[in-house]
Amino acid sequence: MPLYKFGPSDILYNTIKAYPHCDFVIFNSNVYYHSQSQITGEFTSSVPHVPVGHVSLYELNVDRDQDARTFDPDIDADGDGINEGAGVKSLIFPFLTKEGSLTSFGTVTAKSFNSDFAYGSVITSSYPLSSSIIRKRYSSGESRKHVDALQNTLNFYSSTSGHYAYSSSFGNKASSELNLISIPSIFFGSGIKKGTVSLKYFITGTLVGELRDINENGELIQTAPVGSTGSGSVAGVVLYNEGFVVLTGSWNLNDNSAGGYGGFDYLNDSTNLQTSSWLYYGVGMHDGIPADTRTVSYSRVSASYAMDFKGTNHVPTLTMFANADMAELNHSNNPTFVAHGSNFTPKTGSTSYIEPKTNLIKNTMSHSYADPTASFQRQTFISKIGIYDENQNLIAIAHLATPVKKTEELDYTFKLKLDF
Question: How many domains does the chain have?
């Protein structure tokens, strides 16, 4: 098997910048990611084992029955010293053993690690782990440690827009009413693409407001419906790199809401109705407010929301050019490479291994007639290319969809691409 070393111009390193689309729909305390509802599998009612609107961080335990058990002969179910083989649940889980390296899970405190686990103890956790968007509304004067933690970040971007400032003529984010939406980075990668953010607010299916960052400076401006209350006004800002949306717009988006009740029960308190505004955008977005099953006209089930944007992913790529030069790679060690009836018995000795030199290479050249045959030429068919490291360990194999015929007068360059 011939081995060739890549030349200085045969390996290229690049980075692809991709902008994957991401969208959410929120309705009656249910979050739908990419409009996907619960997926029922062969063994479980939820294939990814995560709630609707979430993504599985590791995509493990897919379509596994969490109540099923597998046989384990080492289990003593009732403590009588007899192994009943009751089994263990079939879901896989992470585990590690407490040893001298003192390695532990991030969810185990140092105190618990030192006091609750002896050396040799097995510490376990669970899969799957999931993530989704979260909303938190702050009333006027309410303590807000999550917003306070963003103070320096918001002030840093204030040179881009004054609406970022933590405290300014546009308002004081430390004390005024505020709606904070958190977007985990698993949904947008390196950052949210500027100019792609859209937040839509619907009442009984009718669009009453849409925010877009049309100026690509983080300002969320109400762009629709045209001529509506607040149209053209800034209702908040978006932190592209950090994944936060801060909404402060308090104007009423639906003047004729709730059939004269003056608002909807956004706070899950039927005695205190609220008018529709950006402060209540995304109610039910994992904020602890339950689904509303009432049929009253002020039910918050009348409101629904949509959010979409594009993320930014930097994908490192490795491009390799594997060259098959002229007059090379025209021999094969495959037994079918020689003519039928050839002698394969080698001459062996204590210091030698000699294959027969009289074996004829099979003529595989095509011809219009079976006899006479076409003129003999050396040809092989390249079907796969192996990639080896510096120690000649096989680390990757590139399979060709169709084998490529290689004759002595032809040369090829195979372009191999790897994303990681």
Answer: 2
